[in-house]
Design brief:
GO terms for molecular function: hydrolase activity, acting on ester bonds. InterPro entries: GDSL, GDSL_Est/Lipase, SGNH_hydro_sf. By secondary structure, the protein is of the alpha/beta class. The chain has a single domain, classed as 3-Layer(aba) Sandwich (Rossmann fold). Helices cover 38% and strands 9% of the residues. The chain is built from ten helices and five strands; from the N terminus they run αβαβαβααβααβααα. It has helices at 10-13, 73-80, 98-109, 135-140, 146-162, 180-188, 194-213, 224-233, 261-277, 284-292; strands spanning 28-33, 87-90, 127-132, 167-171, 218-222. α2 (73-80) links the parallel β1 and β2 (87-90). α2 (73-80) packs across α9 and α3 (98-109) packs parallel to α5. The radius of gyration is 19 Å and the shape is globular. The chain starts with 9 loop residues before the first helix and ends with a helix.
Length: 294
Amino acid sequence: MAPTAAAAEASDLNVIRPSWRGYNRLRYLVIFGDSYSDIGYLYNKITTNPSDEAPLGIEFPGVTWAEPAMPNWVGHLITEYSQSKLLVYNYAVGGDSVQGVRKQVQVNFLPRVGEKPSWAPWSADDSLFVTWIGINDCAHLELVEMPDTLDELFVEQERLYEVGARNFLFIDVPPIHRTPVGVAFSGADPGFDRPYSFWNSCLRTRVHQFARDHTDATTLFFSSWDTFTRVLDNPVAHGFDPDHVAREGGDIWADNLHPSSRMHDWIAHDIGKFLEAQRPYRSPAATAVGRSSN
């Protein structure tokens, strides 16, 4: 399905339904994605489950693609920018594409945590399902293949919905053309950024459609593209050396593609602020009463 000429506006993408009781009421964070979210934990029948003492299920901060022994956005979020004690089920795997998310959902999540066992009794109201994927797809797909690939991604969102997920957070891809490796490629290919911006346009359309088709689901859309762009456009204001905007192994980039832990901190900061800004659901009747009493 190709994106429409008028891709969904942000206000249409953040749709609050009764399942959303507010960021501070969440207990479970379920994450699907790639290296930007990976903490190095593979779930199986013998692994340790997340607990208040070990919210990631492994020793903090896990094994990330930032600097050694440093947290990515997931670790920063639960330690610095959460409003409740979150238990994290993180299925993200470095190098994964949408095809990998299919395995994350069907093989790793659904047969265990998806069944709501006694040790993970999540509900529609206290869980948030986060999907941040697309970087690796954009590196390999032709533009004409992206809409169908995103349709496949939303087949997996449908599976999550069918087992009771009702709060969904979708994150778009960052401006990869501004990573150190992206800057190098952009010099030879001025259109290097196009796959990433096109993917994000298609994603917005699919999120809008998902919200329209699932009238009891809360859908949220966070733009990592905007966060990275803001930081890279004004690094000093964010505590970074301006000479490190495209430097591999500098303040902003841990290597030629992956953000440093300090950059992940800004991602977590923005995600936390974004989620905090999403007020709990109020029925139209309650809203009308509130207005009439003012």
